[in-house]
Amino acid sequence: MAIFDLTEAELRKRSSMKWQTYPPDVLPLWVAEMDVAVHPAISAALLAAVENGDTGYPVGRRYAEAFRGFAKRRWGWEVADTQVRQSGDVMNSMLGTLQTVTEPGDGVVINPPIYPPFRTIVERYQRQLVEVALTDTGRLDLPGIEAALAGPAKPKAYLLCSPHNPNGTVHTAAELSTLLQLCAEHDVTLIVDEIHAPIVAAGTVFTPILSLPGSERAISVTSAGKAWNLACFKGGLIVGGTQTGDILARLPALLLQSMGHIAAITHAAAMNSAADWVDEYLLEVQANKELLASLLREQVPAARYTPSTGCYFGWVDCSGLGLANPARHFLDQGRVAFNDGATFGAQYGQWVRINLATSPRIITEAVSRMAAALSE
Ligand SMILES: Cc1ncc(COP(=O)(O)O)c(C=O)c1O
Fold first, then answer.
1. Alpha carbons 266 and 120: distance in angstroms, whole number
2. Is 91 in the pocket of ligand 1 (CB under 6 A)?
3. Ligand 1 pocket member 121 (CB < 6 A)
4. DSSP strand pairing (313-317 vs 351-355)
5. SS3 85
6. How much distance in Å is there from the Cα of 139 to the middle of ligand 1?
7. Pocket lining: 193 vs ligand 1, CB cutoff 6 Å
């Protein structure tokens, strides 16, 4: 049986953000929740904890241990226990690290289009945004990055998303090595969000930033939250390069106390016992990307979409459709909810992000709603 096989009726019983934000006549393919059942190994660990009344504070290194084992098996990457800190989630880990390595007013590089909280944690905490957009083919603009690092803002930190949300680009080892070299030359701390790292199609190589030479001063933040759909259990990991002891020692104390005990149990169960499941659903994600491409070609031919090999999103250019606001138009006229590209960067208002971690049935219905919204 397919993993993305839940019916709309089953999914509408859910009370979390994806299925409850919009009225019941809207089909939601937006926020990064997956339309999957909980993996049996994770629900077994969760149920055992609840049955035992095991709902107190976390103790020990269960999550860090699970991650180290997973990283070694999946990427052949050996992480020392001393490099890993457990925390409450990924974005607070990125924020806490950013606050540790920068002062208010310091420049921080991001690459739009980008997961919106990257911009938030720079702007809301009085750092200065230095934006270097991805190229037209969705890759890192290395000459642009070099110019920004050498430019007047003199950035002190760089927030990279790897793989990149929303467009699903998987950065190559060569690109990442160049980035590390540029950051070292300009004394910039590279903080890399690798939460989507397991979600990479077979045949594409994901390179953990800290597995590369020159990553001694870089930091990775991650969790099992995306790849196993565990956002409700707040947990995260901060992994420092081999020469980041001074940074790790200065991380905010409460950040390092914010992991929940059930998060540690469920995220660890995912990494220890449910890796094969990710590979299984990745085949479905790639098929869903191909399905989206062919449905758009037939029914919305002016939309431009190229399937990526990372993340479970479709990042679709709707500028050929002649709409003032495509996401709003599809919502209002088609009753289908996508993420508005403008939330990933003001210049991307003609794009939508479509969450493809769902059934082919729902994707097919979503595209027919897009087409209907255009014919009205
Ligand atoms: C790139 C990226 N980082 C972080 C998160 C959220 O992680 P957390 O809830 O652990 O902060 C998401 C969620 O979609 C994401 O896409």
1. 28
2. yes
3. no
4. antiparallel
5. strand
6. 20
7. yes
- pTM beyond 0.90: yes
Indicate if ligand 1 lies below 6 Å from the C-beta of 227.
Answer: no
Give me the residue spans of the domains in the chain.
Answer: 8-37+275-375, 43-273
Q: Is 25 exposed, middle or buried (0-12, 13-18, 19+ CB in 10 A)?
A: exposed
Q: How far is the CA of 325 from the centre of ligand 1 (A)?
A: 25
d(CA 349, CA 259): 36
Task: Report residue 101 as tokens.
Answer: 């390595």
State which ligand 1 atom lies nearest to the alpha carbon of 91: 11
Superfamily of domain 8-37+275-375: Aspartate Aminotransferase, domain 1 (3.90.1150.10)
Residue 256: Cβ-neighbour burial (10 angstroms; 0-12, 13-18, 19+): middle
Per-residue pLDDT of the chain (376 residues; tens, 9 = 90+): 899 999 999 999 999 999 999 999 999 999 999 999 999 999 999 999 999 999 999 999 999 999 999 999 999 999 999 999 999 999 999 999 999 999 999 999 999 999 999 999 999 999 999 999 999 999 999 999 999 999 999 999 999 999 999 999 999 999 999 999 999 999 999 999 999 999 999 999 999 999 999 999 999 999 999 999 999 999 999 999 999 999 999 999 999 999 999 999 999 999 999 999 999 999 999 999 999 999 999 999 999 999 999 999 999 999 999 999 999 999 999 999 999 999 999 999 999 999 999 999 999 999 999 999 999 6
CATH architecture of 43-273: 3-Layer(aba) Sandwich (3.40)
Question: Which ligand 1 atom minimizes the distance to the CA of 311?
Answer: 16
Counts for the chain of helices (H) and strands (E), in that order? 13, 12
